[in-house]
Fold each of these.
Amino acid sequence: MRLHPLSAALRGLSRGLSVGTALFFLGTAVGAIDPPGGVLAGPLLGLVGFALGVGWELLYYRRFDYELTADTLDIASGVLSRRDREIPLRRVQNVDISRGLLQRTLDVAAVEIETAGGGDTEASLRYVSYEEAKRLQRDVGRRKRGHTGDAGATGDRTGQIESTGEAGTGETATSAVASGAAETGETMRPAAGEDDERAAAEGARPTTDERSELFALGTRNLLVLGLVAPDLRALLPVLFFAAPVVGLSIPDLLLDSGVLAVGPRGAALAAVSWAGSAAVTAARYYDFRLTRVGDELRYERGLLSRYDGSIPLEKIQQLDFRENVLMRRAGYAGLAVETAGYAPGGGPAGGSEAAIPLAGRREVRRLARSIEGFAAADLERASFVRPPERARRRYAVRYLLALALAAGVLYAVNALLGGVGAGVGGALGGVGGVGDAGALGVRSLLGYWYAPLALVPVALVAAHLKWVNRGYSLGSAHVLTRNGFWRRTTSVVPYCRVQTVIESRTLFQRWRRLATVAIDTAGSSSLVRRGARAVDADSEEAATLRETVRKRLRTTLAVHRHSATPGRAGDG
Amino acid sequence: METLDPRVRVVWFLGALASALAVGVAVFVADRLALDLGVRVDLLVFVALAVLGGIVALLRYRVWRFEVQEDALYLERGVLTRVTSVVPFVRVQHVDTQRGPVERLVGLSSVVVYTAGSRGADVTVPGLAPERADAIQQRLRALAIESEPEDAV
């Protein structure tokens, strides 16, 4: 199959413009050396670049061919160096469709397909018609589910579903009933021996594609989401565009007010930036809905650009509940699912697609249960084991030391400047370009070197808050860990998804007999989001936790192996 | 619990010596070009780093333990931060044996175990006699195949 004919035009225009502009500037720069004749060099080179870019993309379009076969997606592409790629459908983790404003008006879409291997997106189809994109998404999901009668694939699926739903089958069934009766048959998997009949039955029964909406983000929740989770990445552009609109000049504001005396204009600016970044979040999650189609989750979102993607339930590695401090106050929470598809930080929403950006806490829990077949008891009655009290002392000491250090540095600077006299202060001021008055101001401020010590009560409260939000919980089918005060993340890892267990004790932790246990999955954790970790547990408890997780992994897998079909190929 | 081959200390010490030498040379150049402290700072830095490297190598050797247990590879290591890892065989994707230049010189070998995890995705057991390394690789491979591969993610 070819890409959509318009993609030649779209790709050609964008490539032509980028190559054209680059060459235009190059030509202008070179032309400036020889003014009379060189004036034309820029526009000429720009035109050549444009033509080259358009030509290249035209060839790309002509030489791009893809085909969805019964069990693979084959893509032949490349203008000069050719590449033939076959992606086994059973390995596909995510299928994402995105449409910007322009693409939406032209009714085309970009399709990206992810597997667990490699860092990049494995297949990128830019662009196909929106209809074709939806067809691909649907058919990849359907064929993966063994509608072709491939017994191996079906068996694999059975094992995977059982591996997630085993301990909570009853719960899954009830929540599935709650969210749509048609799903019940899907969630309750049959015994292994019935696979082939099952596959045949599914082939004959078209209802497996039946959709049931799990969640839709209402207007009220959308507004709340914007307000409690404003997109800080949008802050700079918002300041740049919004501030002049309300008649504020940021340099002026900084110059004449200082930090303490910002006043009403600063408040106005804060309000504008909050509203602006809230609007960005709201536009991103506008009309968000999460649907369950057979064994997959589908999400759709976006005001200007629309995104929709599929997440196979059997590939979900772990769930994260994310609640920042505002959300917790207002009784809201968000839910993210982690699959092995995206490279760390590479997903459409930075690593993992939010399954639910924001909903009431109970609603989120209900959805979590229906998504992954969670044992409800693990979530509802999760009793988190907090780190021992000495961990709290540790945090307090850490914060107090930081304050003492800050005060100490200020004191040392103050003593140094005061001891040597005004000459040095003046010289320093001169170097800084502030002048004598500024230097005097700085020095009189340094007189208050003990000011950081005023934060001691804050440090104690902070230590307590850090401590109180930490913990872990061993459930019947999942291990839960919780961390963070400002943005609290509760990770839920099914035992059967655990990859490795790593217990570490730093020098300081050993002094206080503490240890950190990291429970690693194949999900896309990064430096920022470090996956499930039980931080600062008592070291004996940590060892027990490590061994328990290991034992439960073994027993859950043994149960699945016992009930699974033999002769399955690998997964993931 | 198995310990590493004592000769691994030589490997680590030589590694530390190489980096101490590099830092020493850098200090020497910086001293010559800019600082001119008069004392042989470069030599001091080199000796200090080399001694430190030696101590760390000794301590690291004393801490390192590993065991091929019935369901997982178990490792304990780390001088300042003690790390205990458990790598279940079901999660093993593939197993390498590696021999670096210094290791070859001393006649040692390492085993590297890869998983699909997002962090700690590869685990190295250094300082093994080549026969032992091969045996462990064979054993892990057999165990990984025996445990069903679809569980690997």
Note: The interface with chain B takes residues 116, 156, 159-160, 163, 315, 317, 340, 344, 496, 498-507, 510, 518, 520-526, 530-531, 543, 546, 550, 553-554, 557, 560-561, 564, 568-572 of chain A (CB under 8 Å).
Amino acid sequence: MADSKDPAKAKSRGRKVKEGVKGVFYGMAAHGHVTAALRTRMYLEHLFMFITLGDMLGVPVIPPYYSLKILPYAVPNIKSWKQRVFRERDFTDQVF
Amino acid sequence: MVDILATPFLWVVATIAVYGVAYWGYGKWIDRNVWRSDAKKATPAHMYMDGVEYFPVSRYVLWGYQFKSVAALGPILGPFIGITFGWLPALLWIIGGNFFIGWLQDYGSMMLSVRKEGRSFGPITYEFTGARGRTNLLAFVLFYLIIISAAFIALIATFWNTFSGTFVATLGILLAGLLCGQLLYRMKMNVFAVTGIGLGLVVLSIYLGVQIPITLPWGVWNLPIWGLICAVILYAAAVLPTPMFVQPTNYLAFYPAYAAIILLLVGALATPFTNIPVSMPSGPFLFDPQGILGPIWPILFVAIACGAISGWHSLVSSSSSSKQLDVETDALPVGGGAMLSEGLLALASLIAYMVLLPKDFVGRTNVGAWVFGAVKLTTPFLGSLTAAVLTTFFGLVLIIYALTVQALVTRFFRLVAGETWGEGRFRALGNKHVSSVVGLAIPWGFAVSGSWWALWLYFGGANQLLAGLAIMLITIHLARVRAPSRYSLIPGVFMVVTTLAALVWQTGTFLFSLWAYLQNDKTWVLRNVRGPIQTDPNLLIIAVAINAVFVIVGAVLFFVGVSMAIRLFRSYNQSIADARAKAPAAADGGTVEKGSP
């Protein structure tokens, strides 16, 4: 949930209740869908990274010329990509 | 005003008060003295933040998400069977089960996962019990998913068959979901506008449902056909991309489902003003008076799962919520708080049954009784809506609860099947279409042949056993870190013993039915199946086969459960022995461990 525009200003009790209710409603109605959408995007990004950096991993997917053209866009994502790909995954992680 | 003591009002107030003590008293005490949650400790959401799976979320959002993920058909239908033994034992189990075990499991699973760097139960089981333990869990979960699917397909088919207006209404919501998915993701329409359109379509669907009731003309074959239609819908949900179908449909289904919960709670609290007394006997009946279900222990404790204690919750708590917990101290409101709130949903459902007459429960076939109870509780203040509209609305709510959860269960089965059979000789079973068909065909077979109450009790048994095993994992962790473990060990042992006993009873019932058949008494085998197999003498051999299959299912669940329990108890004993060996000597002020130089 978005924080108040002025963090220094003490939030009134009413505003806290309002934020709480908004949070609960968002959590019930949409949070699961938002995380599912994020996960779908993550898998697509994994695919993109694999295609882009495939030849560096020993799996040439596209010609190196195009890989090099795309590289500036892929480099900033390498760290988080590695972090996610190397993470231990289990079937019990996929309940929701 | 009616005599307030004759209404369920005071029971609602008493339950809320006891749950308050569970949260602010027992819960805070466990949080402080057993888990010692620390707001300053970094949670996996911060340690491994990737903005996708691991990221901190406000406790309010996470509470809403957790509650929505755990509250489904379980707390609504469990009390229907539980009330067989009288409403008082059912109520006491909803209160006591949740007080001592339910919230403890949900909260403990979340804390365990947080302390294990956000790992879910698969890797934790591997750590505590080895590779065989994890394989055991995988086999158990596969069986568990098949049984859940069978119970839910049977129920959805029964609801469509019982409430003639609900099929068109369900279809309307599914089509509205498809349309909203397109508007949201293809047309990039604003989410508020899509929600408005979707809600308009939901109301229209209910109206059309009332106007166009559908009753199939094939008598005893109606249920198998409804079940088949349900399986086709679930297949589409399992193989289509989630943003296209499951996601928008679940989003739209949320609104009527939660509106119904609020209406039911208001109806339960308003009973002194609406003059609705309790009509069901309080019990306790130590055996099912109708001679179908068996003894109060262990059956009641597996019949009412969600609302008192449910193993499914441990998977939810440890798979996604624990990865998004902002601070450790949020685990109590999110995990424990959501479970206690679900207890209130079970209570509201129990009250919907309590206000009905005993004749509404004869033969345990009137599974739609909740709808009649809900209509009875809400009609006094929703008088402008006709009984037909309210019946369709509450019937639809039952169906969308079952359908939305079942869509996720079918997808999960597909993923587990991919994990299990993705490689090797049976890799065809790992294919998404094959696994979805298998994951629906077997449950459909069970659903259309077995009595729904038999399936529900197997489902409850498997679910509660999973809960017992989850609590044992929590206990092992506590023993390893030398925290007090008896508060989870006693509930864990109780749940494991109770549910294994329930599985033995259920399996024994089917075995006895086969034995009776061999003694020329076919009433028992026919009692355990449903039409057309129950009514057609030519299909008697199928009835016998189904009883035999149920014996095998029960036996497999029992032995996998026992095997898992033995591994966990061994691991617990080892943990206790290790902890004792490393216990600080009393004389050194607790700084030097035994055996150290």
Note: Residues 4-164+215-578 of chain B form a domain with the Amino acid/polyamine transporter I fold (CATH 1.20.1740.10).
Amino acid sequence: MDQPGTYLHWGVIQISVANLIVIGLMLLVFVLALVLPFPGRRR
Amino acid sequence: MTTEERMWTARLRNRATRALPPDQLLPDRQPAYVASWIYVFGVATLAALLVVLVSGGILALEGPQWYHGSPQGHFVNSLHLWSVELFFFTMVIHLWGKFFMAAWRGHRAMTWVTGAIAFLGSIGTAFTGYLVQSNFDSQWISTQAKDGLNSVGVGAWFNVLNYGQMLLFHVVLFPLVLGFLVIWHVLLVRRRGVVPPFADEAAAATPVPQAPQGEEVAS
Amino acid sequence: MSMTTRERRSAVLGVITLLTVVLAVVFGSPDKHAISLAEWARNAPNDFVTTAVAELDGSSGTATYGAPYVNDPTAGQKLGPLPLQRFGGVREPVDTAQDFVIGPLSTVTSDPALRSALARYQGASDDQRKAWTGAYADALGKAPDNDPAKVATGDYGPVPLLAGRLLDLARSGGLDGQLLSSGGFYQTDYAKPLLFIADGTYLEDQARAEHLGGDQWGMMNETGGYPGQAWLWLYTFWYQIPPFSSSDNADALVWALMMVLSLALVLLPFIPGLRSIPRATRVYRLIWREHYRTNR
């Protein structure tokens, strides 16, 4: 990760791939937390 | 008035016990509706904060020169960075979850308020951390951030160019304030309990244009 | 199999700790070394000399900054009619000519040419000094690569010699210590060396190469390929769009806007409309689907 970062551009938006992965993972984990069944509570 | 009633320790203990009975302070059971992974993220945020504090404590123990000079120091520096990334990662998911539960309902507004201020305080604390790395990042971030703080007239008090001041902000002042907020927030959660689901009838009585997921369970 | 609350807490702590260690081992952390004045003077001598002359001339970024460094009632950002920056007062005074150039050079006693150049400069009238520094700054600006060796001849007085000697002092590493040790034995305030180095373009060029510029969403970025402060996305976003991107008061405006938005986040439970979004979006039906299924 000490190599220069890769950046993506869409119009006014500029974001590093690293930040995009972090934000993408956050959204993914959030959705999974809502959708996945929670163990041990099912009746 | 008995002797015990006059002693401030006894009075404080009695007040504390009334406000937060032991089973409420450290509960071993949660209501049945607490059955979603989203509930894990509050505890996960606290866990990440604990790792932040421990790794930061080791950095403080060895001092600023250590985290660049030695591989061990740099490794602990890495632990501190990634625990902070995880702290924000879990905290933001926690915030999203609590937002969609409208977790401020039922006299829980103060829980939301303390949590939101703790979130903003965490941003400030992390920011001062970037300033005391004593590397290129610190140079650039401090010379940029000074403009923001100076533009509203507080730059001489929150002086980002003063390394000594920022180090003390980062390791003493801000963690103290943040620690107080987090403890207050957690005690409020214990006192008020976890927010219950929206009443079913009310939910069903509010038709929503788009079909949300989980529609099939609406009565 | 169902875990108790305590077991679950321990498991979460274990997972977070393990994740931290794995991420630290696999990715490490960024640590681009700090730029010293010596490195700047060695790697970009022309930029260093140009900056030094601007400090002497009183035309550098710091010299024209206003509060809290310089007393200039016309300088500083405003929030509408409110000169908030000026309200803070000049609490960290900096005299760029004296603090960055004349002062450090005055400590060099073994250089007769420098001594007489300093005496000539300090003995001249303000107008004469301004004429020398202004003319030399212009000439440097016009010289190829801003190279002091290629400057056209002109009446610059002792200024070229002073700038050249400051470059020598900086290259030797002496200026780093001098700008820091201006007050006493123990020092923790890096305001002077940081302000000086930030007045040049060397630091900024390096930052821009790492996508750290203010107009590059720099606040949320990090050196190398590391994730940065992604949580600053909204704060840095405003700087990218009008009216902020073209305003001289962008910092004050964005600060004020973020204060309002932060307050809205804190007080969300009391704001009609916003506080009803959770009920309207019905994401909660997903969170509590077990409850709604069993309590139907």
Note: Residues 107-193 of chain B form one domain.
Amino acid sequence: MITSFVNAITSNTFQTIAQNTDACVKIETGLKAVGRPAFTLMDKNTDKDTRKYAAVKEFLYQLLCFGIYIAVIPPIFKNGGFKLAQKIFKNEGMPAFKNAKQMLAYHHLAYMKPEERLLPKNKKFLDLIDDKLTNPKDNNTKLIEYLVGNKEKNTTGLHKGTMEKQGKMFDLAKGSIELSSIIGSVVGLTILAPEISHLILHPIMNTLDFKEEETHQTSSNGSENGVNGQKILDKKA
Amino acid sequence: MSGFFYNKLKDLCISLGKHNDALYAVLAIAMFKGVMRPTFTMMDKKTDHQSKKYAAFREGLTEAIAFGSYLLTHRLIQFAVVPLARAYNKVNKNQEKSISLKKLQNGLSLLSVCLTAGIIIPVVCNLTLKPIMDGVAGFNNKKGKKNNTKLDIKENESPLTQMQMYSPKLSENSKRLLNTVRVTSMQNYGMKVGG
């Protein structure tokens, strides 16, 4: 059991996810969408209606956060931030990656063993690394040669450790993507999500709740309603 | 861009490129939410000052709990790295290479973030928010009572009590008013943390 657990968390896929801000925030938001409503429903200090209301609201809010995150972060912050970093660090000899996706594909492949990079499941990443992509700091050597080698030169792909030592992981490019993703996550989840939720969630929740209340009112007389109302207010004060 | 900021930005990017912990993003989100959300709440001109103060304090407190929980679980789970690596190496003696501590650390870090976001923060919030907020509400009520003696005592009385005094059977308007009060209090319940 310990072997499979350690193998799972040290696998390349898990490591790539752990190093990727975008993936981490998506996982975190997904877990919040499940965990928070579940624990809200379990809270016995509050009446059932309020718990249900808060749980639905929390679930919808997290769902909205997830939607905003997917819609805003990759196209605007991840790619935009990367393009900006390429301009700022134009004298640092970064390869001319077309976009953040291409850089991340290279980074993902670099983490693997050379023979693993050629597996069919990794073809989609390898296809993104075209021949035009070269390293200006290494006589414009093609990046694909670092990953899979060159048959003409009789070379094989480089191991991750070697690439790290020789500065072929392009930490500056990878870091600029992560930094812009962190900034994007903060802007998306602390400014955009609450503002959009005010516009979308509150009307939805109000509509849902008013309907529920109307059915409750028709089933009881005025004085009973007042007493029930007082109980609810007392518990939530 | 000036040389100092350029170098700082470059160092930060290189550092994040070399090692980007899952913790960094969630801490940044919790920290900014802890500042921004209470600020936005206090800027809302439609709500009365006392409610704004209550909601802002609760939002700030929730984010403080989230921030502390992320840091603490991350710190605690890092103590498991060496024992886990030893146990793994003991079980897999025949392997040529021992397990990489750095990889194990990264993996456990992501797990700690998931565990904290999905379970620990909701549990801690459920257990601590209500007692703390009740304490704060009590403090506010005392303050309110002091003010009441100087002003009109009926002003701070709940609309419900006044209605019950004057009308045993509630009119349609009163029912609607009660409904609004109930919905507002429902909206104020919950963890109010997103992202």
Note: Residues 3-153 of chain B form one domain.
